[in-house]
Amino acid sequence: xxxxxxxxxxxxxxxxxxxxxxxxxxxxxxxxxxxxxxxxxxxxxxxxxxxxxxxxxxxxxxxxxxxxxxxxxxxxxxxxxxxxxxxxxxxxxxxxxxxxxxxxxxxxxxxxxxxxxxxxxxxxxxxxxxxxxxxxxxxxxxxxxxxxxxxxxxxxxxxxxxxxxxxxxxxxxxxxxxxxxxxxxxxxxxxxxxxxxxxxxxxxxxxxxxxxxxxxxxxxxxxxxxxxxxxxxxxxxxxxxxxxxxxxxxxxxxxxxxxxxxxxxxxxxxxxxxxxxxxxxxxxxxxxxxxxxxxxxxxxxxxxxxxxxxxxxxxxxxxxxxxxxxxxxxxxxxxxxxxxxxxxxxxxxxxxxxxxxxxxxxxxxxxxxxxxxxxxxxxxxxxxxxxxxxxxxxxxxxxxxxxxxxxxxxxxxxxxxxxxxxxxxxxxxxxxxxxxxxxxxxxxxxxxxxxxxxxxxxxxxxxxxxxxxxxx
Length: 472
Prior knowledge:
Blueprint: H1 4-7, H2 13-24, E1 66-69, E2 74-90, E3 104-116, E4 121-133, E5 146-162, E6 165-174, E7 195-204, E8 207-218, E9 227-244, E10 248-265, E11 268-285, E12 288-301, E13 304-318, E14 326-334, E15 369-381, E16 384-394, E17 402-403, E18 409-411, E19 419-433, E20 436-447, H3 449-452, E21 461-471
Antiparallel strand pairs: 1-2, 2-3, 2-21, 3-4, 4-5, 5-6, 6-7, 7-8, 8-9, 9-10, 10-11, 11-12, 12-13, 13-14, 14-15, 15-16, 16-19, 17-18, 19-20, 20-21
């Protein structure tokens, strides 16, 4: 395996690659002029991937979100998001630690600007302000408070273009958001996650290939005090292929490598280098839709080998009738450590996943877990949806403990009980437009035998949340 630290050094392979690509970008013989994109994506979780095109016949009546400049050779786009949230946990983490009966308020503001000099050169910047009020015990680490930070700041240059094929180089601070967010996600908690490094993007019609080498950014609560974390490095290749004939499908194939100076599992604490190879498939055909994912992991932990895996499947059927009721079933299983006394580690690591992995309570992640999750949705009005779900959790290995959504070690094995617990949740959401959304959530987590056997866990969890989001 290559030395990732060396790749980031001025004399390393990354430095030489970036320098070569930047020099290549100024060779006109290798480039063909092309206009700015003509297709609109609308609002996306990562605003840096949005396209708000300017067609030649509408340059005189464009929306305020996007404006041409340099005689319409370039474009300037801006926007953002305001999100206000109220959360109330009764029995937070099953009564472990300090509790807050009155709830608390979260606010997040994102503002971005996207300047395109032409089809080849681009500069993108995004600011984030994430605040917290009224939480007993103060902010939770990383996810609640970041007063003001540069969320993204990167330059992008098109280094190759011929026919339908193009290659872009993006360097600087940015997010990694791929697939369903089960491995690489922008962590849509109050504070988002970002990385710093370089990414190359190849596009050819419905094919996209991303290759990247990054360092994680360490989140701090103050003003512009985030910094790159040299102890966490991630690299990889993510391939996406879209099919849209009789079946609308999206295929993902990926290889990821993560190096952490210190990780913690039931076996103990030590350095970790983990390689993940996987594939996923999203599809929709008529009344059926679904998602499948299979991952395998290898590498070393604390100087000894590791081998882990995960499989997930979701199928949804939408009834072609009034209110469009939809019924889905999700099942997932990920490996846990078979024996803490043996040196080989089998615990799956979700790397950099969603902030809340299953349901709407931030307690259980995707390591050492077996899940069954049926769900029903009904659209009573065009923009009003009601969702009800049920979750059942077990440990895959009774020799391993419980892990948080971010993969952090949470609770030890202690007992041989396999059943973790069950959870009910309900969501009422109303979106008067694509830019505005209201969501009311309620969840109830009932402890199973494994949790009841843990000292200090004396309560079930009842959660209520109310969120308003305005995107512009």
